Fold:
Amino acid sequence: MTDKPKILVVDDENLIVTMIKDFLEANNYQVITAIDGEEGLHKARAEKPNLIILDVMMPKLDGYKVARLLKFDVRYKHIPIIMLTARAGTVDRDVSLKSGADAYLVKPLDLAILLAKIEALLPKA
Structure:
């Protein structure tokens, strides 16, 4: 149906989800969203996105757990994950990377940096 790369945005802050979704759609990406970790995990498995933007602190399942469940499953481990969090500490960054994140960005989000990370992580067509 579409050749646009599919990105899953998982965050419990509706404003963040809307901002990222609108920005990515304006940059020629297909975007699907989820509002908590459990929904994000289900959508990742069902939709098989090309990339996931994943908040850390969320209800039901936190981003670390979602990342681990996906990255340690052979069917989904190839999907790049960008962790997005308000936590800016070195420990938080290390835990994100050990959980399987391919990149780590801190809120407030710089959309130009997000776009650069996405372009670096997505395979070239």
Observations:
- The chain has five helices and five strands.
- The mean pLDDT is 90.
- Strands lie at 6-10, 30-34, 51-55, 81-85, 103-106.
- The CA atoms of residues 74 and 114 lie 26 Å apart.
